[in-house]
Every structure is written in C-alpha cells, then in structure tokens.
Amino acid sequence: MKEIIVKTTVKVYSVAELSEEFKELAQAALSASTTAYAPYSKFHVGAAVRLESGVIITGNNQENAAYPSGLCAERVALFYAGATYPGVAVRAIAIAAQTGGRQVDMITPCGACRQVLLETESRYGGHPMDVLLCGTEQVYIISGAASLLPLSFSGSDLGVTD
Fold this sequence. Notes:
By secondary structure, this protein is of the alpha+beta class. It has helices at 20-33, 73-84, 111-123; strands spanning 11-14, 43-51, 56-60, 90-99, 102-103, 130-134, 138-143.
C-alpha cells in the first residue's frame, strides 16, 4: 500500500490587510452578488475576475426553477471573460456571497466551478490564478485552482497535451 498526502496552502488575510488590487476585486464580487438572480435559494453569489490586462469582469449566480439549468457566479464571470477577451489570461478571481442582505462569513466554489477554474488556467498556459474566498472579516487566498481540486481531471486525461 502507498499513501499520498495532498496539501493545500491557504493564506488568510483580514480584509484590512488586502492589497488595494485585491480589495477592489473583493468589493466588485460582493457588489455583483447584489444583482444575482436567486429567487429559490436566496443565496446571492458574486464573482469578479481580474484579467492580465487589468480589466475586471463580474458575474453572479443565475438560478432556474429546474436547478441544474442555473449557473454559478464563477462560471458566469469566467465564461463571459473568455468570450469577450479570448486571448487574455485570468490573474485572479474573487468570490463573495450574501443571504438575507448580509454577507456570509465564507464562500467556496462548487466542484463544477473548481473544474472550470482549472480549465481556465490550462487554457492560458497553466499560469495559476489567485482565488479569493471573501468573507465578512477574512479573505482566504489560494494560489492556483489545482489547490482547490487535487487529483483533478484535465485535458491530459483525454490524451490532449498543450
């Protein structure tokens, strides 16, 4: 038998400790959450993507009565960025959420969004993006989507190489 230990490094900052660039991105994500379409879950999620060019793209969750037909904030933002700026890599993504008009203490991306984060990095040469998980008092920063999705499935599993 062989044992594999998977480790993830998470840097935890108070909101006040964030760089101005990350503060701006976190605020853009929280602002995007205010216009989410979430009539069923009442859980409003916003995402803000900073591209290598400095442009910030936002998205929010879009629910549907047939739940699987909705889309998470992260995917809305990343797909919009990829469609609008197809040759520009993502530098960072911030995710924030609120319910009942109050920001939640912590938010993490679902498995499908983690897969899309990983594919987005791969799409632009594998350069890891910073992932900011924004809470009321603290922001967790993870360098690279692979840290959120260890033992992941990628194009290499399909025999596709860069």
